[in-house]
Amino acid sequence: MLYRNLYIENAEAASDIRVLDGKFAEIAPHLDPMEGEEVVDFGGKLALPPFIESHVHLDTCLTAGEPKWNMSGTLFEGIETWALRKETLSKKDVHDRVNKAVRLYAANGIQHIRTHVDVTDPKLIAMEAMIELREELKDVMNIQIVAFPQEGIESYPNGRQLMEDAVKMGADCVGAIPHFEFTREYSVSSLNYAMELAEKYGRLVDVHCDEIDDEASRGLETLAARALESGLTDRVTASHTTAMHSYNNAYVQRLMRLLKMSGINFVSNPLVNTHLQGRIDTYPKRRGITRVKELREAGINVSFGHDDIFDPWYPMGTGSMRDVVFMGLHVCQMMGYEEIRSSYNFISNNAARTLHLGDSYGIEAGRPASFIVLDAKDYYDALNTNAPVLASIKNGRKIAESVPGTKKALF
Ligand code: 17E
Ligand code: FE2
């Protein structure tokens, strides 16, 4: 199969891509078709490595309004509302909703998802369903599962055991929620426990860390210190870290040294945290997004996640990471020309580092032939025009396509 005329990752000149046996065989400015080879000429469109959703809660998706709407728009009313919805959870319910959400994602060029799955459920229903879904969907979506203790590890009955059970069932990553634990002591011990569990079972770590507008919420320093001391370093991710928005600058200056030394990754969720944070402020209202620009300037890996699709925390969402990047660039004030052009990295290459995809990811000869084609010439154009994903190709197979609609003035 020969794909022609693609601008790979904003390249100035177009390339042709040959795919054989599900792998990138050759990538060059001009390749002549072999005898009998099928040719698709894209005529000068943008090719990117597949988009990655590095932070979402698939188990809660598509449940907004059930059994009630989140009227305050806060994280905490979201957690209370989900606790009510959880009472009626069944495996079929999770299967049906996740199947829909995964198709929304696929149509938007996503091929990898890291999902947090709530394990503060004595029956671990969502975890069991998600382990099955990971297997059922593996040819079309690579799903990584985080054992996520929504209501706490130390503050929820049997919390430690549920975490370990979920890891034994096959969760890929260990989570935690230090800012939700009853006390600071619990916050620290929950992080120690999560790190020990990850070491014991050889798992990655991804913590909901300091998702609160409280400048005194400092789980991050504990997580980073443990990442450094244990040697888990870049196997560890801090998600949300919205309190960092409210930390004083003197503290951040000291903290940055540790963050750099620790090698941990960050995931920011600008779409959802712009909506959830700052809710108890009058004016001025905090944006409540972690310091993405400063983390990047310090050479720290940051990716963006959607966090939710239509659930107790976020009443919207179509599975498009474009909306996430668009909001992120605005709210973090990263609107310089190069910042905009390169911003696809937040939902591709940077996220691949966080998910530890290694050599299985990237448009390079010898790697799995997985890439997407956008109806644009570069990512600046794609972001600005909300360009559709013309084709999503995974291991050489087309798994999604879109036919550009016609939207035009009639004069
Ligand atoms: N749970 C949580 O603790 N934080 C979030 N942002 C979501 C679920 C969506
Ligand atoms: Fe989250």
Structure overview:
With 411 residues, the chain is α/β, with parallel strands linked by helices. The chain has 2 domains: 2-49 and 362-401, Urease, subunit C, domain 1, CATH 2.30.40; 51-358, TIM Barrel (Alpha-Beta Barrel), CATH 3.20.20. Helix content is 34%, strand content 21%. The protein has helices at 75-86, 91-107, 125-136, 159-169, 184-201, 219-230, 249-262, 270-276, 292-297, 321-331, 337-341, 349-354, 379-385, and strands at residues 2-8, 15-20, 23-28, 39-48, 51-56, 110-118, 142-148, 173-174, 204-209, 236-240, 265-268, 302-304, 371-374, 389-394, 397-401. The strands form 2 sheets. It has an 8-stranded parallel beta sheet. Strand 14 (389-394) and strand 15 (397-401) form a beta hairpin. Helix 4 (159-169) packs parallel to helix 5, helix 5 packs parallel to helix 6 and helix 8 (270-276) packs across helix 10. The chain is globular, with a radius of gyration of 21 Å. The chain starts with a strand and ends in a 10-residue tail after the last strand. The mean pLDDT is 98. 5-methylcytosine binds at residues 57, 75, 150, 177, 208, 211, 272, 307-308, 313.
Summarize the structure.
The chain is 34% helix and 21% strand.
SSE layout and pairing:
Blueprint: E1 2-8, E2 15-20, E3 23-28, E4 39-48, E5 51-56, H1 75-86, H2 91-107, E6 110-118, H3 125-136, E7 142-148, H4 159-169, E8 173-174, H5 184-201, E9 204-209, H6 219-230, E10 236-240, H7 249-262, E11 265-268, H8 270-276, H9 292-297, E12 302-304, H10 321-331, H11 337-341, H12 349-354, E13 371-374, H13 379-385, E14 389-394, E15 397-401
Parallel strand pairs: 1-4, 5-6, 6-7, 7-8, 8-9, 9-10, 10-11, 11-12
Antiparallel strand pairs: 1-2, 2-3, 4-13, 13-14, 14-15
The structure holds 5-methylcytosine (17E) and fe (ii) ion.
Residues 57, 75, 150, 177, 208, 211, 272, 307-308, 313 line the site of 5-methylcytosine.
